[in-house]
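User: My collaborator and I are trying to settle a disagreement about how two of our proteins should look. Neither of us wants to argue from intuition anymore, so we agreed to look at predicted structures for both before our next call. Could you fold the first one, then the second, and keep them clearly separated?

Assistant: That sounds like a sensible way to settle it. I'll keep them separate. The first protein:
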Amino acid sequence: MLERVTAHDTVVIESLSRLERSTKDLIELMELFQSKGVNLVSLKESIDTKSSTGKLLFALMSAIAQFERDVIADRTREGLAAARGRVGERPKTDPEPISKAVKLYESQQYTVMEISNLTGIKRATLYQYLKSEKRQFCGR
């Protein structure tokens, strides 16, 4: 589209968020439109850059949009820092207690609740491990 627009064309967009990735991109795009004599109309924000008011509103809206993106990025960084390096899934359970729990389960002398109390392995973890072990044994 940028290669095909000419003077006196009007680019109509649904929302500013569909046009730009950052305020810098938006400013560069607006400078390009101005140099080519192209007008921009944003339906959602009711902005028409033919008027000086539309140009001002356009600049303010783009600054606010960039501010929102920056706030989200800051919160993401803060959340990652609060996680103290923990990113992604939960840490794996120590294999030794799981192995002990499986042996107790296979002995059929204890209930799952008793095995959980003896080994510290939660019932769900034991069942999940037994299920995955069964799949490996069956070749699935």
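The second protein, kept apart from the first:
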Amino acid sequence: MRLPRLPDLLTTANLCCGVASILLASQGQLTIACWLIFLAALFDVFDGLAARALGGGTPLGAQLDSLADMVSFGVAPAYAVWVLSAPVPRTDLLLVGAAVACICIASAWRLAKFNVDTRQSTGFLGLATPANGLFWVSIVLIGVGSGLPANTAAHSLASLTNQAFANPIAVFVIALLLGILMLSEIPLPSLKLKSKGWKGNEVIFLLMGIGIVLALLYGILAVPLLLITYLLSPFWGKPFHKTT
């Protein structure tokens, strides 16, 4: 048995965050549970950076990464959505349960597909599992009033978001649509810099800039807003693809 490499340890930290999130959510500690998923995403970024710094990943690391992502960005966000929706009538819970199933099933299929698809080395085909998971935990955080700045615009937008996601039909439809996007062939940027300069990284740098501005203005609401911007990047990013 070989000693674990640094990327594997970082992936394990990602997994630990996901497990802890589920345990805390089961005790009603949704705020901490959701922020742990953002910490898991940080570890997910670092394990990729560490793997590239050490000359590339390993087959074991790739499988471990997918298993950790399934827990942290599939099961844990889905469970947080379930816990947040628990007070709704029993008939509505069937729709929420279907939404939770969509999140988990789409995440599993997406990760399995990514592992065997050699076309996704420089970009994604379909929405990545971590992006979907962060979207759902941000919705839960908005629901519990965490991560919102003290300005009227943010609280008004949060109120509209909560009204929309208070409808179990809306939750199911959005989960289904995002699940379809995860398994789609839509080309999306992987957010990995291709070089040190602006050329070739225009879409990534613009997304980073937009994300910073949205975070300053709207706090946690920046996550769903940035996801929409990201999903639309194949359209508004076309002029940059033509020049690279």
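Some points you might bring to the call about the second protein. The longest strand covers residues 123-125. The radius of gyration is 18 Å.
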